[in-house]
Hints:
The chain crosses the membrane at residues 51-78, 98-120, 141-158, 194-219, 231-251, 263-289, 309-332, 344-362, 368-387, 399-425, 431-452. Pfam families: CBS (PF00571), Voltage_CLC (PF00654). The protein is mainly alpha-helical. The chain has helices spanning 5-19, 30-43, 51-82, 99-123, 131-137, 144-159, 167-184, 189-208, 211-222, 228-248, 267-299, 303-320, 329-336, 342-362, 369-389, 398-414, 417-428, 434-451, 456-463, 475-478, 499-509, 529-535, 562-571, 594-612; strands at residues 491-494, 514-517, 523-526, 576-580, 588-593. The chain folds into three domains: 51-248, Clc chloride channel (Orthogonal Bundle), CATH 1.10.3080; 267-463, Clc chloride channel; 477-606, CBS-domain (Roll), CATH 3.10.580.10. It has 24 helices and five strands. The strands form two sheets. The chain has a three-stranded mixed beta sheet. Strands 4-5 form a two-stranded antiparallel ribbon. α7 (167-184) runs antiparallel to α8 and α12 (303-320) packs antiparallel against α14.
Amino acid sequence: MRGGPVGAIWRGGLRRISRWPGRRLPTATPEAGAAFGGWRRLFRNRSGAPLVVLASACAVGLAAGACVFAVHNIVIWLQRASLGFAAEMRVAVPEHTAPWRVGAALLAGALLVSLATWATSRLSDRPPSDAVEANALRGGYLTWMDGFAVVIPILASVSFGASVGVEAAVTQVGAVLASVLGRRLKLPRSDLRLLVGAGAAAAISAAYQAPIAGMLYAFELVLGSYNKRSLAPVALAALLGFGAVAALDGGPKPFIIRQTASALWADFPVAALIGVLAALLGIGVMVLVGGVERSLASLTRSETVRRVLGALGLAALAFLAPGVLGSGHAAIDEAVNGEIVGRLAIGLLGAKALASALSLGAGFRGGLFSASLFIGALLGQAVAWLSQLIPYVPVANPTLCALVGMAALGACIIGSPLAMAFLVLESTGNYEASLVVALGTVVSSLVTDRLFGYSFATWRFQQRGLALEGGHDISRLTTVGISELVRPAKFILPASASLDQVARAVSHAGNKAVAVQDDHGRLLGLVDPALVEVVENEPDLPLAAADLIGTPVVRVPPTATLADVVAIFGQDDRGVLPIVDPKRPDRLLGAIRSRDVFRLSASIAEQQRREDLGLVGRQ
């Protein structure tokens, strides 16, 4: 500013003021300088988030809370218009609603979802990304089209009776608002990812009036990690999202507990049992979604026809169990308070699980967030009812079992155990059951990881070929090539080379590759040094170079990214991979060593960590 026109005007003004009678410029003192420096350090803390990020998080939190309120009311209005009643607010179908109207609404929803999916696919050249995928693969980059392509089909599904939740839509709204605002402000990559997490936290906080759960959801799923720098923006967004909904709605907690749920020592084994059952049930629901999807795909290639078939199946289920329609918020409240118990709870549990799997497998859009809470509450009520039938077993508290079931099944399907535990406690306002709920959640998460290894979101990513386990930023590895790491093979041996020749070549090659070719110069693979070390003490074995190739033979094109190579090396302990010509896979171009790959990936990860902590590019 000193050399510019603004600086000149500023200095001239100070000189004129200094000439006024009785006017003297204040003289800087050490005490004043120290005080000013303290304020400057306060607002330029190296380890904290910049003020622009904090202010943006506040704005996103308020906007996300208002959008959650709007989406909730839009869904209720559309359900009343299509179904004749608000499925979000009641379990039973009113007498004035004819069964044909429910079926017609579901069919209309199927057609609208197909139309919305077709329209958004024509307007965008790539599939839409959600908050987790955007943070993991695209540095938090989301567009308005990502929002429309996700939110509109979900609203069309839920508003016309499909058995899915609307939480994926409101989370997408918060994340897109955050990403668009962050890009308009030209925030750096780490701050943009942080703001997307704050938007998702605000949406979950507003949807369930659970700010702590919203924060933990962002840390566990959307951001993939926690650090001190990310706490303030995420917390502010979650609190303001909660405040916005409370100011607009002013209603009580989403689920009101009308019975006591104090925990006793005898409840801890029951909570652990519910955790195991919830994990098994959650895995079954996730697998059932894939089974329904494959079955319908085998019947027809048309996605619209699949949705129509799914709508007909949902209509039949709704005729038997109306509680399967919509996300099931009202049913959760009744299940927690013991209004759905015994055989009714078991029957509705099976119907809701089948309806949710049928909805998602047929192609309706939405998530299993609300469904996992509802099914979990029914599971808890079923366990409490069965405990009354088994002699010499203490009778379990039904409300307590329902709370444990909600958190445990949510931890299994959503993949965010801490967030689901706090969501149950906050949304019900019952903290006396915290230890028992925590135990059931931990057991469910542990069993799910051991038996299945995925939540519903990460499992769907795997089915699409995306090796994502959350919002960890792996996009940097996907943008780094491997050309600088490729080295020529140290030795190239014929397939008939003896064991002694192979052993000498491996010894002289060190960490470099020893390739094996056939008589026509075509690559067969690379020698496995570990295999040579095992057999070289048996010189009489009739082995040749072709017998000592590492299996399975993996051929990497030079266009592969660092992420691709890290994934290959992570599958086994091989030390070198061959780089081949994409047009002639039997032509060796060079080799790449695992030590070089992991050194570079560790360097990139450290650079990313420093940026996330605010230690790079800050004064």
